[in-house]
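User: Assemble these into one structure.

Assistant: Restating your components, then the assembled model:
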Amino acid sequence: MRLRPGTIMGSLLLALVGFFVLYPLFMVFYGSFMGGAAPGEPASFSLLGYKKAYSDWETFKTLWTTIWLAAVRTLLSVAIGVFLAWVVTRTNTPGKRAIEILVWLQFFCPYLPMVMAWVLLGAPKVGLLNQILVWLLPIKEDFINIYSYWGIIWVSSAHWASVVFFLVTPAFQGMDAALEESSRMCGASERRTLFNITLPVLMPSILAAFVVVFVHLLESFEVELLLGYQKGIVVYTTKVWALLGYSPADYAVAMPLTTAFTVVLFGLIYLQHRMLAGKQYVTVTGRGFATRPTQLRRGRYVTLGLAIAYILFSTILPLGVLVMGTFMKVFGVFVQEPFTSRHWETMLADPRLLQSLKNTLLLGLGAASAGMILFFFISYLVVRTTFAGRKALDFISWLPWGIPGLMIGLCFLWAYVGGIGTVLNHYFGIRIYGTLWLMVLALVVRGMPLGVRAMNGALIQLGNELEECSRVMGGSWLYTIRRVVAPLIAPGFVAAWLLLFSIAVRNLSTVLLLYTPKSRTLSVLAFEYWSGMDYGTGMAAGLILIAIVIVTALIGLLVKTKFQIPSTV
Amino acid sequence: MQVFVIFCLTAILALASGAPAPAISAEGAAWQKVVEAAQREGVVNYYSYPFTGTAGVQVTKAFKDKYGVQLEITTGRVPIMVERVRMEQKSKSYVADAFDASGAGIITLKNDGLLESVAEALPVLKEKDKFVRSPIEDPPEAQLLTVMRTHNGFWINTNLVKPEQEPKSFYDLLDPKWKGKMFLNNPLYASAPDSNMMVFVRAKVLAEDYFIKLYKSAALGGPGGSREAVDKLVRGEFAIVGPVSAVDAMRPFLGGAPIKPLDLKEGTMFRVTRWAATKNGPHPNATKVFINWLLSKEGQLVATKALGLDGVRNDIPSVMPFRFTGPLLIETSELVLLSDKHYSEQYLAKLLGLKR
């Protein structure tokens, strides 16, 4: 479909996205050649950083650990997430609605508090699970050791499985049951239908989810820092964090290390394009369709049991420990008279709480709303048009994945505190540093790969005939988008909006270098309490944050239900 | 009765004669103007290491109740905050008004010319006899002011170390029975190990060889520093940790955690928390009022109670629940600078064969 006004819009969009993404990214490369200068500091060209970073064998060892650890966790997350999505959308497992809501609950839980909950549960000797198991069974007191590769794999996979679920469920829901029925009518078993029909047809969504999760796990930070670093399990992000934690910070090595990920990213984009090139994956067409669940008979209780086990260990248990922790005098330790309400009193008496709450909501609404509108248009241009620059646009929208959240914060410091920020500050008196605007922009850029991929997954399944019918009947492009495209992709759009809102409100790594007292968010407040060893109060702040995102998720579920296509059975 | 009436009449006459009120000095008037300007500014942006969490809330409330000025505390690891201040100053995006730290971080900011002196404007510094020693750490620049005193040493978990097993000497820490049970701050990421060694070696109490043996016999931490070590101690993952700052250990201790500092016969290191105003801070008057209050009797009472540590005045009672019987070895400014140089050169880390 050729759009002439779209060419103008596309060019403007390409320029805007290019500036927002490429300018900070350029600063990463610029900084990597500045021999260790800090943001805004004058420096001269030097290859010293590259020499230091890449002449060290440890760098390559770290990169290898990062890649294989991310791959294992991604496979496990996708396996669990796809299983749950299939159970909830395409089977007659009882309690599907409750399972869906509880998996969403896991997805929306901020990462840092959940990781700390697992420290309380799985620390060798003193972890609650170890204490219970030692009491019940004749085993060693470090039977469970959360500070290990397995600890990292479990905690990450438990969370990212919910992300996979979130990403693939709309596609699972929208698939026409006629495809599966045809398979069964030809004599195929349920299992054969699942593996030969259902999964291959939904492969674009699954692959998109795989890539999303894999790249996020490459740049994952909190789990690896809290559970792996002290045990010598070093990944790329914790290495960069350690370098920034030196005094003075070792930018000379940190910045060149960042560029390594861009190379990995190029490989991922190429791989994705090769996998999906030339294949048809339309599942939502102009014909009416039904979504009849597969009848599992007694197998439905097995699927129910597995889903409950996942929810219990990924969500209920850590959340319960978190709540308990906010009432403990000494976090994780049962002293005499171990419980107190002091942490909640401190939290609620903190004059920073209200401002942080306000900033958090503004940040989430701003980043999700501005982001999704932008991402929809990017995705539409890439997937539904023959705009000449669509490949460049698709490519640019991927690039922020190449930079971990922490480094995106640093890029934006270089770009908008130094660079153009200095010009705006000196000549126009406009200071961007420390404003919510800068944080919104950083989070829009950060969320771009995910948002665009989510929209791609939703748009790629729409057959062209739907829009063509509307245009043939006289509908304008805007009318077609509003009355035809938007309702069909609404579940995916809402899901992605909620995803971005959740990411924005709980984000820590990106905003940590950009905030000032005026723009402090709740996640930062919780982190400040946490890093000041006021764990109970930090957890109280974390629980308030969880409450916000859960309320948002429930609202989103209601909205999503309204847009769902009803089953004919 | 007659005498009483005459006395009362005399008193009334004396009051009615209108004895002149004491004159407000020029200094007092000038300070009053600073206070009024501070109240118009309305806020102080304070990057602080010790005043976090509950302690920060208490100090914020007390200061606001007194002057109506909001104290906005931002906290985090000292190297991160140092970089933040440096970046703000170099890019002229001034946010921080004041900064505190006990180690080398604040010294590096001073050496980079990013701090300024407010000492001359502070009336509280005239109460010279009320301070244990002069709060001005670095005459004549007078950019660094001492606000708290804290000890830095080794702590034990009292559930894992019984009183009869408690080490009494540094050399007891080398006992093989502590292998696998001792966790030390890593000299790659924290300046505390270099500082600790410097103080004891300079005092000719312990030799460098001792510290090499000590660090090689223990598990070493990551970038989490003192707080990571205290965490592990509180949760019982290790029986002994060090050298950690009392700023970090006192919080869980005050909450009832089964930990206590070791009183080793060779001595205990004490260091100070230094405070400074950043250059071109956006709220200069509020900053002066805050530090004046923090060094006053009232401010020190609030701060010491909030942290469980001793302040810098001798007219307030000590709140520290521990007493050390061995020598108190103070980390002077000279030693801080030397330790900073050692840490930046990774002196102890190199002795141990550690690499970043």
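Confidence is low (pLDDT under 50) at residues 16-23 of chain B.
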